[in-house]
UniProtKB/TrEMBL annotation, chain A:
This is Spore germination protein. Pfam families: Spore_GerAC, Spore_GerAC_N. Residues 23-207 form the Spore germination protein N-terminal domain. It is found in: Membrane. GO terms for biological process: spore germination. Its main location: membrane. It comes from the Bacteria. GO terms for cellular component: membrane. The keyword RNA-binding does not apply. The keyword Lipoprotein applies. It comes from Cytobacillus firmus. Residues 219-387 form the Spore germination GerAC-like C-terminal domain. Belongs to the GerABKC lipoprotein family.
From TrEMBL, chain B:
This is Spore germination protein. Gene3D superfamilies: Amino acid/polyamine transporter I. The lineage of its organism: Bacteria, Bacillati, Bacillota, Bacilli, Bacillales. Belongs to the amino acid-polyamine-organocation (APC) superfamily. Spore germination protein (SGP) (TC 2.A.3.9) family. The keyword DNA damage does not apply.
From TrEMBL, chain C:
It is found in: Cell membrane; Membrane. The keyword ATP-binding does not apply. InterPro entries: Spore_Ger, UPF0353/GerABKA_families. Belongs to the GerABKA family. One of its GO terms (cellular component) is plasma membrane. One of its GO terms (biological process) is spore germination. Keywords: Membrane, Transmembrane, Transmembrane helix. Residues 1-28 are annotated as: Disordered. The keyword Cell inner membrane does not apply. This is Spore germination protein. The chain crosses the membrane at residues 320-342, 401-430, 442-466.
């Protein structure tokens, strides 16, 4: 009897103790699913007045899902209430801003479901991304699978939506995952990969998002300088296509070219692509050859003259597509080499892999060196089928 | 013919003990600790090299133990080096064993409180774990071996599943260039990787329990080889997924690898819980076998029953585990134990073997 | 031996192996005077109203005789039409003159060998010894002037017919189940596993109840060490009455603190036969249809006889399913608790969102929620078990549907919790061994507590604890966890996957059978 009493007391004690330890019920959480970081240019007026201003004010917008909003989402969104909740707060760094948020919400902000971090253009231009993202890398509650996206203009705007049932952060991530079917979207960049990139000192690209009429659109890529680790410039859609072709990191995607004879558009749909950057070093001179191979099908062609798809025509279509791809890749190469003098296309990495000794010599001034290096392209398109119509 | 009373280990059991003992904290930290030393993607070669070194040391240990069938190091060291020196040696080995046990539970508590139980006091994490270990080793080497055999397949299956999930972010380019900075850093890095293979010293004890001690060399080769395979996969996948530069900044790179991808459409999207599960089990195996080895040593040196020593060691292990004040000190403690083991089990068995051979020839 | 000192006269049995002659047997020996002997009998059992003393004369002679039997235990038809008729009518015919004044010895022998056409008949002289036999259904014939009486084995208590076993249904397989009658049960075994090496060795257990117990094994398969161990443990049983084989199980098991059953019980003769063929030992007790099988290992509990009757692929898949079921029934609610209260980051985001939505407004933490539902379902299960058959299922439906639905709409529990509890409960039904199912039911609660304190870490701790216990546990010297470990490929052919019968050539090696292969 005494034994059972003791055991009972022990169990009760343990249960009550456990309440003070780590357990927290799921409905008491506010799941952060997206975070937007901006520079607070409007500023806390009073702060600046009182001289606290040190210019480093972050504006953090967290997209939360709480018990109330989730109910709206699961109920089919009949009500007018939004399926998410955006909370904005400012602070000198990320964590202080996050903590200030406690003053505004009753839920415990929970970061493990964060899907995306959107960095505002202004912030990315002015601040070292390594420092900005430090909190997200350090905090174990933040997952390293969280994607990083750069916003054109304001980041917090991208987390707003016109329709109440759509959750912008999730929609954004799903859009990025649509990469398989478009060459205009870059390979997703989770924090884990970003960290390696930042550490390596090479320049790289991040997916960009912009807002149009309160809706998000993926538009091109942001070039991050490997030395300053800040945003240098944006690439537009067409240039991003070129990037995907050079890197061969894609699968589907369209290339629109013109039939030379009747200038009707031919739309080539790629089903697989492969590329290889081959550096060759002779003495001091470095040069690259980029070999791009793709297989695909005719997605659409406007030549209604009834011409059969004979092999001659196919050859012609292949040629036209090759030419178009070459135009795309040369376009982006020109821009990076001449306008920005930055290697965001991974040429340096391939040099490092095949000629580590040479790389050691040129590493420190690579972006400069790169801008003068000649690049050859060899593109091979093969059309495997033309769909169900002949 | 009394059934089930055997206290002998079969050769597969011995190999399983070895694998379970070797695989422990190293799985989570090896990619970083070796990347720090090498700063090149050739870590996998270092791992192989470290494994080969460990095999060599293991064979020496086995050769030594085979000269004294049915006896552990604690007993035959007295025979080789004399009663006092031998006992002293035994005590040092015992100290090593329970310090290692303390280190493992400390690492366990750190990782658990970081990733699973933020806010739960460390003592509360450690206590039940230690008591369960004590409960297990109360049954002797036979239940220990059986539990290890139970845990190993779970570990292997889950580990392979989880790690192969990370294929999605694996990039072969991250592992290149091969030998980009020459062979010297690889050799320099061996000291780090060979420490990951600590555990081979258990052969000093379990050879005595084997029913076929003649197969002990095979056990060492298979056991170390299997562990090497695991470490190799870990290192290759972690470096391939996160790149050397990415690994350098992580405290627990393997967990971070698993945390850096999500696979949708399954019951789970995230797999670090599975990895932590098998890792905790591996820590448990390492902790129990070192705990058992230490208490067995005490009971054999002082020729007393093993039970009281097991209870007595429990608070000692706990207190030693609590000594490091922060994470850096924990890792420093790990390094210290590792390097002392290099001397203790890399050099000492060879010396004992030579002495024993000389003595044996005289006799 | 304590018992014999307390009692003046230890009850002896002719079936006991080492029969000791009792020195002090005076007042219980037959005197030859029928009235005195009858008085002695009446003193022993006469106060029982169900004991009948039928006095009559043999044939037309003046020899008085008394037939003593217990109403309902002895075959009344046999007594009327056979015994009484032979003794009273046919005796005359056989003897011719019918006025034969024979020596008593001659009469007893004569009746035994010429008159009573019964299979089981024996002579005895001690009254005390015969009383238990009367109470088991034998009839005793006392003859005037005789110093021996005849014990007529005509026990025919109203027993159940052989029916389909209730607790272990099978779609395919024999429909016979054991009954409460020991001889029926041994007959079932003998008939199905007809081998001359099948040994039934008999014991008497229970100091007061004197129940028959049979240890069955196949001599040239079972390991003698195990058989000896079983026998010696049975001989050490020291209790007044053994009600059911569950008593035996608890009195001979290795570790009574363990939550796991260390003997397997079954109603199915085919299962017992299969076990005997593996080299295991069966224990049958009179008065219960449940036979015990020892030694047992954890994996044996997850095997059903149908695994072998169905083709091997379906058998293996079903077995696999059982492993999943055992996992769910043990860890289901605990994992739910740890994910909902501790590691919300580990569930998929969309699932987390819907759980958040459904749990909104539930006033309790998940452990309390789970406890409420689990306890409720255990009560329902228990209630359904005890109720009369026609009402039982109705209660189940009322409980499951109405209470669950009402609890959800009242906001006491979340719908997902109801799903978890329901799946867990159903999983626990999928375990073929009922006693293991009960163990897992309460271990599940322990696991839930671990999870409530330490989350997933607690679940792992619980797993390590249970495994540590399992590897230490032994059933009659055989490690309980055998088959899983130590690794033996020949044993694994019949573990999670059941290999085709053509490949299953070895008996389980952890039993160390005398004859390790199944070859003919």
């Amino acid at each position: 009897m005494k034994m059972t009493q003791k055991v009972l007391i022990f169990i009760l004690a343990v249960i009550s103790l456990s309440g003070c330890w780590s357990s927290k019920e799921i409905e008491e959480l506010g799941l952060i699913i997206g975070t937007a970081i901006d520079l607070d240019n409007e500023g806390e007026f009073e702060d600046r007045q009182s001289g606290i201003d040190n210019g480093n004010v972050f504006k953090l917008t967290n997209q939360l899902i709480t018990a109330e909003t989730a109910n709206n989402a699961t109920n089919g969104g009949q009500s007018q209430v939004r399926a998410y909740k955006n909370i904005t707060e400012t602070g000198e760094a990320v964590l202080p801003a996050l903590r200030n948020m406690i003053l505004r919400i009753d839920k415990r902000a929970f970061g493990e479901h964060a899907k995306v971090i959107i960095i505002g253009e202004e912030l990315a231009r002015g601040y070292n991304l390594e420092q900005v993202l430090d909190f997200f890398r350090r905090e174990q509650e933040m997952r390293s699978s969280t994607l990083i996206v750069i916003a054109k203009g304001s980041a917090s705007k991208t987390l707003e939506s016109a329709e109440p049932t759509v959750i912008p952060a999730i929609q954004l991530v799903e859009m990025i995952q649509g990469k398989e079917r478009s060459t205009k979207i870059l390979t997703p960049m989770p924090i884990a990969k970003m960290e390696g990139q930042l550490n390596s000192g090479n320049s790289f690209l991040i997916q960009t998002v912009s807002t149009e009429n309160n809706d998000r659109k993926l538009t091109g890529a942001a070039m991050i300088d490997g030395n300053t680790k800040t945003l240098r410039a944006f690439l537009n859609d067409t240039e991003t296509e070129g990037v995907t072709w050079i890197k061969g990191k894609g699968k589907g995607g369209l290339v629109r070219s013109y039939d030379e004879e009747d200038s009707q558009p031919i739309v080539y749909e790629s089903l697989s692509m492969k590329s290889k950057i081959k550096p060759s070093v002779q003495g001091d001179s470095i040069s690259f050859t980029v070999k791009i191979e793709t297989e695909g099908r005719i997605g659409e062609h406007w030549d209604i003259s009834g011409k059969a798809f004979d092999s001659k025509y196919m050859k012609k279509a292949e040629k036209a597509t090759e030419k178009e791809i070459e135009r795309l890749v040369k376009n982006v190469l020109e821009k990076t080499q001449e306008e920005y003098k930055m290697d965001v296309l991974g040429f340096g990495r391939s040099l490092q892999i095949s000629h580590p000794q040479v790389w050691k010599k040129v590493k420190n001034n690579w972006d400069e060196t790169f801008s003068d290096i000649p690049v050859e392209f060899s593109i091979n398109v093969s059309i495997k089928e033309m769909g169900t119509s002949r | 013919m009394k059934i089930g009373s055997k206290e002998k280990l079969s050769s597969p059991q011995a190999a399983v003990i070895l694998v379970n003992y070797i695989l422990a904290a190293g799985i989570l930290t090896l990619p970083r600790s070796s990347a720090e030393k090498l700063e090149s993607p050739d870590i996998w070669m270092t791992v192989i090299l470290g494994g080969l070194f460990a095999m060599g040391a293991g064979i020496i240990i086995v050769k030594l133990s085979q000269r004294y069938p049915g006896r552990t190091i604690y007993k035959y060291s007295q025979e080789i080096a004399g009663k006092w020196a031998g006992s002293f040696l035994g005590l040092i080995i015992i100290i090593y064993f329970f310090s290692l046990a303390a280190y493992e539970i400390r690492v366990l508590s750190e990782v658990t409180s970081l990733f699973l139980l933020e806010g739960t006091p460390i003592w509360a994490i450690i206590m039940p774990f230690m008591w369960i270990g004590l409960y297990l080793i109360g049954g002797g080497i036979d239940p220990i071996a059986r539990l290890f055999e139970l845990i190993l397949p779970i570990t292997v299956i889950i580990f392979l599943i989880v790690i192969s999930m990370s294929m999605g972010i694996f990039e072969l380019d991250n592992l290149r260039p091969v030998l980009g900075s020459g062979i010297t850093p690889i050799i320099k890095g061996v000291s780090t990787t060979v420490v990951a293979f600590l555990g081979i010293e258990i052969m000093l004890i379990i050879v005595a329990f084997m029913d076929k001690p003649a197969q002990a060399v095979k056990v060492v080769l298979i056991g170390t080889g299997t562990s090497m395979f695991f470490y190799l996969i870990t290192v290759v996948m972690v470096i391939g997924g996160l790149s050397v530069d990415g690994v350098l900044t992580k405290t627990w790179p393997t967990i971070d690898l698993i945390r850096s991808f999500e696979i949708q459409g399954l019951i789970f999207e995230r797999f670090e819980s599975l990895l932590l599960t098998i890792w905790i089990m591996q820590i448990f195996t390492t902790y129990t076998i070192t705990f058992y080895a230490a208490s067995l040593g005490l009971s054999q040196i002082f020729k007393k029953k093993i039970g009281p020593f097991q209870f007595g060691l429990l608070p000692v292990i706990y207190l030693i585990g609590m000594i490091p004040a922060n994470m850096n000190e924990v890792f420093a403690m790990g390094d210290m134990i590792g390097y002392s083991a290099l001397i203790l089990f890399g050099v000492l068995p060879l010396a004992l073997l030579i002495i024993s051979k000389i003595k044996g020839d005289k006799a | 031996m304590k018992m014999s000192q307390i009692k003046k006269k230890p009850i002896k049995s002719s079936t006991m192996k080492h029969e000791k002659k009792n020195e002090d047997e005076g007042p219980y020996e037959l005197t030859g005077e029928i009235q005195r002997d009858l008085q002695l009998f009446k003193k022993e059992i006469g106060h029982n109203s169900d004991v009948h003393f039928r006095e009559f004369n043999i044939g037309l002679t003046s020899i008085r005789a008394v037939l003593i039997y217990v109403d309902g235990l002895s075959d009344k038809e046999l007594i009327d039409k056979h015994i009484m008729k032979s003794l009273m009518q046919d005796f005359t015919d056989a003897k011719g003159d019918g006025r034969h004044e024979a020596k008593e010895k001659f009469t007893v022998d004569y009746i035994k060998s010429h008159i009573l056409s019964l299979g089981e008949i024996s002579a005895a002289s001690n009254i005390k010894d015969t009383v238990p036999q009367i109470l088991k259904g034998s009839a005793v014939l006392l003859l005037d002037g005789a110093f021996e009486m005849l014990i007529l084995g005509i026990a025919n208590g109203k027993t159940r017919n052989i029916e389909e076993p209730v607790s272990e249904q099978a779609v395919r397989g024999p429909r016979e189940g054991f009954t409460e009658n020991l001889s029926d049960n041994t007959a079932l075994l003998r008939r199905n596993g007809g081998t001359e090496k099948l040994i039934f060795s008999k014991f008497i257990v229970g100091k007061r109840s004197n129940k028959d117990l049979i240890v069955a094994y196949i001599e040239d398969i079972a390991n003698p060490a195990i058989v000896e161990e079983v026998k010696s443990r049975i001989q050490q049983i020291d209790i007044d009455n053994v009600m059911e084989s569950g008593y035996v199980e608890q009195l001979i098991e290795d570790n009574f603190m363990s939550p796991f059953p260390q003997a397997q019980n079954t109603e199915r003769p085919d299962r017992v036969n299969a076990a005997l063929m593996e080299g295991r030992v069966a224990i049958l007790l009179d008065g219960t249809p449940f036979a015990l099988l020892v030694p047992v290992t954890f994996s044996m509990m997850l095997q059903a006889s149908e695994d072998y009757y169905e083709r091997w692929i379906s058998g293996s898949l079903i077995r696999l399913l059982r492993f999943v079921a055992i996992f769910i029934s043990l860890f289901g609610p605990a994992l739910y608790i740890s994910f909902v209260s501790f590691h919300q980051g580990l569930i998929p985001t969309k699932l987390a969102m819907s759980i958040i939505g459904t749990r909104d407004g539930v006033p309790f933490p998940s452990i309390i929620e789970a406890l409420i539902m689990e306890v409720a379902i255990e009560i329902l299960r228990e209630a359904g078990l005890r109720l009369p058959k026609p009402i039982g299922p109705a209660i189940g439906i009322v409980g499951a549907l109405i209470i669950g639905e009402a609890a959800v709409s009242a906001g006491i529990v979340s719908p997902i919790m109801v799903i978890v509890v329901a799946v867990t409960a159903i999983s626990s039904f999928a375990i073929p061994e009922y006693s293991l199912g009960i163990s897992l039911r309460y271990l599940r609660f322990v696991c839930m507590f671990f999870a409530a304190v330490f989350g997933l870490y607690g679940v792992i701790l619980f797993f390590l604890f249970i495994s540590s216990h399992l590897v230490k546990l032994k059933s009659f010297g055989v490690p309980y966890i055998s088959l899983a470990v130590p690794y033996r490929l020949s044993d694994w052919k019949d573990f999670i996957v059941r290999f085709p019968l053509k490949v299953l050539k070895e008996r389980p090696s952890m039993l160390h059978p005398k004859d390790p292969t199944r070859k003919g």
